[in-house]
Amino acid sequence: MSNRKIIVLDTTLRDGEQVPGAKLNVQQKLEVAQQLKRLNVDIIEAGFPASSLGDFQAVQQIVKSVGDSVSITALARAVKNDIDSVYESIKLAQNPLIHIVLGTSNVHVEKKFNRSKDAILQMGVDAVKYAKTLLPNVQYSTEDASRSDFEYLWSTIEAVVKAGATMINVPDTVGYAVPEEFGDLIRRINERLKNLNDKVILSVHCHNDLGMATANTLSAVRNGADKVECTINGLGERAGNASLEEVVMGIKVRENFYNCRTDIETKELLRSSKLVSLLTGLDVQVNKAITGDNAFAHSSGIHQDGLLKDKNVYEIMSPEDIGGDSMELILTARSGRHAFKNAVEKMGFEPGEGDDFEQLFQQFLALADSKKEVYDHDVFYLLTKHRDIPA
Ligand code: KIV
Ligand code: ZN
Asked: What span, in angstroms and rounded, lies between the C-alpha atoms of 85 and 97?
């Protein structure tokens, strides 16, 4: 197992909860937090406490519930009131972390804030200095980093690190980056950061607007990011955030390529996905990588035949690795004799041999041609329709 550990921050309860319709009540948030603890995430971002009293109290409850064993953070804009709210809501956690966000791109500085670059940089430095009077651990997010002018981005990072920031988070806020470019950005920041202060943790936070959040996150890991921010099922603002299950399994399945590991309990991934889907009411797309219903379902005859000979022929990971049952062979008109025979035997029947089996298989194909999928009860019907079923 690799020595280089990647820290996993889950922000399902903050960025994930920003999804329209995904609002959770306190009890539901506590259920998610407990599951994130079972999943062994390193840090839970529990909310945005300055946004409402309800959010503030929910963060406090999460701290009470899991804050003795998981590091807890919450989000603040670079203003004193927000930082105070975060501090008051997380201060009883064993390892609390204040998270400050402030934009670095021209469009943020000029349009969102209508201030000068120097003024925004100073605002960030003041926020970090203030947060450091409250807690030792402060993360600074350079919002919209991927669309920022590199030298200004670096000046900001340098200044907030000198002011005491212990983690620098580089967000691709609007999902604009592409993997090669984002990896390059992280490599350049990492080279300078290691010279400035090699204790500071470099983190990434990617959005999925172009469907590249996971790829960008993994590219960042390969180029020196020590920490990844993700959500269960990829929930999050607009098209969502990098999906925790995809990033974690990407690192695990391709450990030799990435040369690192996470401490995530991967057998809890499927349960986490199902719980978050159930509580938010947001379905997981059936073909979603890792946790979609079809992620381990095989329907083509060629694939089914190969899998029955050796699972490695068509599986790069086992469903058991993520807490699922063994592979699923879906019977359709494209299934072959091998898969059909396997299904018959699994139901405890003798498939017969030679012409007898061939006749049965042809009946199965005729049935399969008239349906999308053939279920166990259909096979049962085929096998029993000419027999007397004991009363
Ligand atoms: O997308 C973003 O930039 C954020 C920050 C608060 C990290 O969510
Ligand atoms: Zn975000």
From this structure: 13
171 lines ligand 1 (CB under 6 A): yes
Quick check: CB of 172 below 6 Å from ligand 1? no
pTM, entire model: 0.90
State in Å: Cα 173 to ligand 1 middle: 6
Residue nearest to atom 4 of ligand 1 (CA): 173
Give the H or E element holding residue 169.
strand 167-172
Record the tokens describing residue 327, joined without a space.
């592979």
Tens digit of each residue's pLDDT (9 = 90 or more) over 278-308:
999 999 999 999 999 999 988 788 888 888 8
Q: pLDDT tens digit string along 166-183?
A: 999 999 999 999 999 999
Residues 16-39: b if buried by 16+ CB within 10 A, e if exposed? bbbbeebebebebbbbbbebbbeb
Query: Which protein residue has the closest C-alpha to ligand 1 atom 6?
Result: 101
Q: Smallest Cα–Cα separation from 69: which of 48, 39, 108, 49?
A: 39
Name the packing angle between helices 244-253 and 269-280 (round to 10°): 170
Q: Which residues contact 3 (CB under 8 A, 6 or more apart)?
A: none
Whether residue 213 has its Cβ less than 6 Å from ligand 1: no
